Amino acid sequence: MQEKNDKNIKTTILNRIKRSPEHSVFFLTDFARITSLETVRKVLSQACDAGLLTHIAHGIYVKPMMSRFGEVPIPLEKIAEEIAARDHVQIMPTGSTAANMLGLSTQVTMTVSYITTGASREIKIGNRSIRFRRAAPRNFAYKGRTIPLIVQAFKELGKDNIRENELSAVSRYMSMANDKETFTEDILLAPMWIQNLIKKFT
Fold first, then answer.
1. What pLDDT is attached to residue 1?
2. Three-state secondary structure call for residue 142
3. Are residues 152 and 92 in contact, defined by beta-carbon separation less than 8 angstroms?
4. Which of 146, 137, 192 has its CA nearest to residue 173?
């Protein structure tokens, strides 16, 4: 009976993996309600051996996306969002990560950085890294995602390094944003010098 139950658990886990889209992220805890973590670890290890999953970090697995050139690396930003959802915390891109997302920097980075309401830590994904730094709750008072992203990027660049090119990139980003209804309130939470730079785009 136990053997049959174990087989059913394995089938349930593998079917969920097979039905999921490429670049789906899985954690050991995703299946904790149906069996022990040790059993989950064993099944996911077997899934890796079968090519259904790739083990990318401690307790973190991803369904690979393949191209004719081989496996396509999963964006670190997607992993960060999935970790935040799992841990029920808020995160916000900061520094060069925010600048890259806004198109203010073309620098290829092997590390993405976030502030978080959770714990500070760094997660290694192969030769890449995700850094979380705990920040005060006031940093997450914004209703939308666009204005705080701009605030974090501009703080990274510094007031004296923001010129017409940077402002043009931000203007384009804001014009395509899907949270425009939050701009009026959110801009009031930004430092005054940033308000003065971007209020004409709202």
1. 44
2. coil
3. yes
4. 146
Same-domain pairing of 194 and 132: yes
pLDDT tens digits along 75-85:
999 999 999 99
The span from the CA of 114 to the CA of 132, in Å, is: 5
Which residue range forms the structural domain that includes residue 125? Answer: 76-201
pLDDT score of 102 more than 50:
yes
- The pTM of the full predicted model, rounded to 2 decimals, is 0.86
Residues 6+ apart with CB under 8 A from 65: 22, 23, 71, 72, 74
State how far Cα 37 lies from the chain centre. 24
Give dist(CA 29, CA 156) in Å, integer.
Answer: 35
170, 99 contact by CB (below 8 A): no
**Are 52 and 135 part of one and the same domain?**
no
d(CA 183, CA 177): 10
Domain end among 29, 52, 70 = 70
**Dihedral Cα 168, 174, 176, 178, nearest 10 deg:** 170
Calculate the dihedral angle through the C-alpha atoms of 28, 33, 34, 40, rounding to the nearest 10 degrees: 10
Last residue of a domain, one of 70, 85, 111: 70
Please, are residues 144 and 121 in contact by the beta-carbon 8 Å criterion?
Answer: no
